[in-house]
Amino acid sequence: TPPISPFVKAPINGIGRCVPSNPTMSNWPMARFNDNSDVPRVSSDIFITFDDGHLNNITYALPQLEKYGMKANLIATIGLEQDEISYIKKILPQKECEIMDADVVSDIIVTSEFVVIVRAGALNQADIGLLYDYYKEIAPFSETVIFLGSIAIPTELKNHIMVYKDFDSLRDNLKYILLSAYRKQKKSENFSVTLANAIMILSSIRKKPYITSAELAEKLELSQRSVQRYIETLRVAGEWIEYDTEHKGWHLQVGKSVLWGDFDEE
User: Fold this and answer.
1) CA 52 to chain centre
2) pLDDT for the residue numbered 174
3) What is the separation of C-alpha 12 from the centre of its chain, rounded to a whole number of angstroms?
4) Which residue from 155, 135, 136 is spatially nearest to 145, judged by alpha carbons?
5) CA distance 241 to 258
6) What is the mean pLDDT of the chain?
7) Residue closest to 99 by CA, chosen among 110, 114, 109
8) Do residues 128 and 149 make contact, with C-beta atoms less than 8 angstroms apart?
9) In a 3-state reduction of DSSP, which class is residue 93?
10) Which residues of the chain have a pLDDT value below 50?
11) How far apart are CA 69 and CA 215, in angstroms?
12) What is the predicted pLDDT for the residue at 116?
């Protein structure tokens, strides 16, 4: 499946981490899910990451998370005191949100979160540099990033990272910041789902000429009217999608897609 984004969220493929409810992620060993090596056994919870930003993360994984009530909205913290984390838990914008208290910056880099709160004094210069390099690579990014402490933010990140001198100075604004970040994430998710649906419809028509609106609607769990709207949007974007009255289905003229780059191969 082609990635939605060229940026790789997690540099280590096929690796996940099992965690209990309370301890931090870094207190538990990494577990390779693609072999039979020593996978840690836990009584209840499991933490799952989806790497590389593939289209099927949204079209297949997200509906399953929602079906079983699994939380996919993380607030990542590093270096915070327990009472500060407890305060954040009291003002979470939604019950579906969860806090991930990390020990190492790699936990933040490999995990998708909508808010990141970092106490700069808890990190060494190498770790801070690693975070800076990561955020420079993906800027502008959707997550809200907050640093606590006296720290020099690189010029190219000053418009993307908030800085507060300590947690107390952040406290009064934090509830609003979390709510705003949550709403921002939801808008981003809605856009991603819309984009994913359009790509799936285009891919289906390209792969199976004369596929019907009913088949597309069943495949994507949409109404037939919604499918037709997506097709019209794809037409506006330059796709030569036509309805064949004889076969009663949709197909690409000359069987090639503009957005898929089929004409670039000529």
Assistant:
1) 10
2) 96
3) 16
4) 135
5) 10
6) 79
7) 114
8) no
9) coil
10) 1-44
11) 28
12) 96
- DSSP 8-state assignment for residue 159: T
Structure tokens at 82: 């327990």
**E-assigned strand segments in the chain:** 15-17, 30-32, 73-78, 97-102, 115-119, 144-148, 161-164, 241-244, 249-252
Q: What is the DSSP letter of 54?
A: B
Which tokens is 228 given? 């037709």
Q: What is the full DSSP assignment across 183-248? A: HHHHHHHHHHHHHHHHHHHHHHHHHSTTB-HHHHHHHHT--HHHHHHHHHHHHHTT--EEEETTTT
**Distance of alpha carbon 19 from alpha carbon 40, whole angstroms:** 9
Return the pLDDT at 54. Answer: 61
Distance CA 42, CA 30 (A): 13
Is residue 252 within 8 Å of residue 240, measured between CB atoms?
Answer: yes
What span, in angstroms and rounded, lies between the C-alpha atoms of 252 and 205?
A: 7
Q: What is the pLDDT of residue 59?
A: 66
Nearest-angstrom CA–CA distance, 137 and 135: 5
Exposure b/e, 178-192, CB count within 10 A at least 16 = b:
beebbeebeeebeeb
d(CA 195, CA 174): 31
What is the maximal distance between C-alpha atoms in the chain?
70
Find the helix packing angle between 82-90 and 167-207, rounded to 10°.
Answer: 60
Closest listed residue to residue 109, CA positions, set 32, 3, 12: 12
Structure token pair of residue 144: 């809200």
What pLDDT is attached to residue 72? 60
**CA 195, 64, 70 angle in degrees (round to 5)?**
110
